Amino acid sequence: MNTTESVFNVIRELILELKDDEIENITLESTIEGLDLDSLDFVEMQVVVRKKLGVAMDPKAFASRNIGTLQALCDYIVELTQAAQAPA
């Protein structure tokens, strides 16, 4: 099961690969806007989340779910994981 912490670790590592930043600058409180992520970064994030965490993110989630921080993003991914693991 993915936890907020495990999801955050995956997302943080990806952001460190995409952006030239220091690890201590990337926290759960970091804003998506403040990290200067662009649309290609979001596509890469979707691919990594699917491969490493086993869930598919809705491309429209950032707009429709009002995801503005890494905390909100991680919570969203954890919700997707729980929904995918729930009995049908």
List the helices and strands and how they pair.
Layout (H helix, E strand, L loop, with lengths): L3 H15 L20 H15 L7 H4 L5 H16 L3
Give a summary of the structure in a few sentences:
The chain is mostly helical and 88 residues long. 57% of the residues lie in helices and 0% in strands.
Instruction: Let me know the largest β-sheet.
Output: none
Mean pLDDT: 89
Strand content: under 5%
Instruction: Give the low-pLDDT segments.
Output: none
Q: What is the end-to-end distance?
A: 17 Å
In DSSP terms (H or I, runs of 4 or more residues), the helix count works out at 4
- What's the β-strand tally? 0
State the secondary-structure class.
mainly alpha
Helix fraction bin: 55-70%
Radius of gyration based on Cα positions: 12 Å
- Could you say which overall geometry the principal axes of the C-alpha atoms support? globular
Write down the secondary-structure element order. HHHH
Descriptive overview:
It is a single chain. The protein has 88 residues and is mostly helical. It has 4 helices and no strands. It has helices at residues 4-18, 39-53, 61-64, 70-85. Helix 1 crosses helix 4. The protein is globular. The two termini are 17 Å apart. It comes from Stenotrophomonas lacuserhaii. Residues 2-81 form the Carrier domain. This is Carrier domain-containing protein. InterPro entries: ACP-like_sf, PP-bd_ACP. Pfam families: PP-binding.
Top keywords for this entry?
mainly alpha, globular, 57% helix, 88 residues, 4 helices
